[in-house]
Every structure is written in structure tokens, then in C-alpha cells.
Design goal:
about 300 residues, 11 helices, 8 strands, about 45% helix
Length: about 300
Amino acid sequence: MASVEANGITVEYEREGEGEPLLLVMGLGGQLSDWPQGFRDALTGRGFEVIRLDNRDAGLSTEFTSPPPTTVDLAKAIVSRRFVDSEYLLADMAADAIGLLDALGIESAHVAGMSMGGMISQTLAIEYPSRVRSLTSIMSTTGNRRVGQPKAGLLRKMARREPPTVATAVDQSVEFFRMISGPTFHEEDFRALAIESVERSFRPAGTARQTAAIFASPDRTPGLRGLELPTLVIHGMVDPLVRPSGGIATAKAVPDSRLLMFNDMGHDLPRPRWEEMAEAIRQNADRAAAPAAQVAAS
């Protein structure tokens, strides 16, 4: 792994494979190490150079210091649909990714993000259209508070969770992802990944600040309607955290987008679907190359 100074912070990243650059943007509190190796292999095997980064306040990238919002603050934001105070926005996290591409000398890349990473990826496409070749938004939503909201029962369980410690973080993570994942959730594999993540970096306050950035950022629907790039939306039909309406709304907003939904996918990347997802991302990326190829052929 390596790091660069980008957008005024340190961004940790990793590159693997050869081919067209594909930037993978992780979700809330996640780290670049949370992208499953098998899924990454499926992408590099389809001609991508996969670039992963730790978002600010996660992993080994810069950690911020402002007081994180409380659970009560976030609950009020959900109920009232009001913005919360935040030290930074999703737009700042998108600018971090652009800074990484600048530091690596990459003029443009395909971009795929999951959950909050999908929100950041959408923001990248809206604010830096010349830098994004194609967009894949996975288990994400538009920022419109009327869609993609968690199930009420899940919210109540989340509100009752004790703050994690290094000693309890792995068990809490396993318990939480068992609740939000689809029927193919494999506890043993996930526990190994959770142990690796906690040993690499433990930043619960950073996760709370990232959550504030989500609630402080505006609805992206108007910007999504103006996109003119190949867009793929992937969503689980049994996702209780970002309900399917979030993915459907994203696909409806982006002109000529493709919506791919799986009935065995929750808020996770189910192993049986890795190859199919990777192939769909490849096909979406190929749509970006098609116009240039057609011009060359003529």
C-alpha cells in the first residue's frame, strides 16, 4: 500500500491489475481492505487496474478531530429530514478522490462505489464529469430523504447499540452485518475480514463524522438528471439499510442508466454474484468506449 498528499490530506491507496483504471470507493466506516479479494480478482480479470482508497476518517487516511455527532443528533436528522452540522461534506470526499487521481497522473477513470461510496461516486460524476468514464452505484441512494431509508426496526436496533470498543468491535460488526446482509452471508469469512479491519484501523468517531457528512450533503437528484455517461446501478432487493427505493430512484434519475437488482443481496456483496457484478461493470465501462470506437471505425 502507499499514500499521497491530496486535497490537503493524506490518502492511503492500493493499485492492482493492469488495464483501464477503475476507482473503487468504499462505504461508511469501511476501509480499502474491505473490498473482497475475489471480487477484485473478477475485476482485474476483466481488464481493469483496480484502485482502492481509504476515505478520509477511515483506514489509514487522515483522521479528523471535530466532535462527532451523537446518536440523538443523527436520529433527529432522520426524523426531521434536517441537515446536521459537519466538518466536511461528500463533495470534500469526492475532491479527495480527484486529488488521488491527480497524484497518480490519471486523467479519467471508471468509478464504482458502494453505499456511502456510491454517494461519493455520484458526486464525482456530477462535479467532475470529465474525470469519470463510467459510473457504477452499488447499494446506494440519491440523497433524497424520501427514498432509500433504513427499515424502522433496523433503526431502533442501531439506536440501542453500545458504542464499540476495540474489544467489542468485531462481534458488533458481525452482528450488524448479519442483520443487513442477504441470505448468503458467511459469518466465518466476515469475522476474519472484521478482525483484519479492526487490527488495521479502529475509528468509530470517524464513522460518525462520515455519517454527518451524508446528512449534511444535499440531494443529488438534480445533478444525476444531468449526467451524460454510462451508469450502472446495482442494488439488493432485500437491503434493509438502504432500501431498494434508493437504487430505483438513482436509476430513474440518470438518463439511459441500467438497473441490476438481485433477490439474494442485502446490504452486502454476495459471493455468488461477484462474477455477474464484475461482468456488468465491464459491460458498463465498454459503453464509455463505444462512441470513440464507432468514430474510429467510420
